Amino acid sequence: MPTPSMEDYLERIYLLMEEKGYARVSDIAEHLGVHPSSVTKMVQKLDREDYLVYEKYRGLMLTHKGQKIGKRLVERHTMLESFLRLIGADEAHVYEDVEGIEHHLSSDTLDCMTGFVEFFEDKPELMEQFHEFQQHRRTQDES
Asked: Which positions are tagged coiled coil (predicted)?
């Protein structure tokens, strides 16, 4: 099982490979805000754990295991962003909030949240009622 830090790398590598077809150490470092040497160390660790294949100066490739986990991590991240937006979280904080909670939820809780998002996406009239309720709550809190 990957650590939260390993998950961040796998998620970013998966996204880069989906977007560009490749993931370079410099690209990973830029997106994660870390030094390239830190990326190299983590990539070597992910290689040892069979999440990817890394050859110095030649690049890296996700293994089947790495692709599967990377895809799941991206889906989890997207679902959490959808959930926070659905409940009316401040857009300015959505990304950082997801980063703060995504590694700490059980799969059961994630399944429940996914069901919640799907339910409200399927019932826009109830979503409108929820937004009205939230607006009313905020108005009361301000007075």
From this structure: none
- Give the list of residues 6+ apart from residue 66 with CB closer than 8 angstroms, or none: 10, 13, 14, 46, 50, 51, 52
Q: How far is CA 6 from its chain centroid? A: 12
pLDDT tens-place string over residues 17-66: 999 999 999 999 999 999 999 999 999 999 999 999 998 877 899 999 99
Structure-token pair, residue 90: 């401040």
Report CA 33 to chain centroid distance, whole Å: 16
Q: Which H, E and C letters describe 86-122, residue by residue?
A: HCCCCHHHHHHHHHHHCCCCCHHHHHHHHHHHHHHHH
Q: What residue ranges in the chain does DSSP mark as E strands?
A: 52-55, 59-62
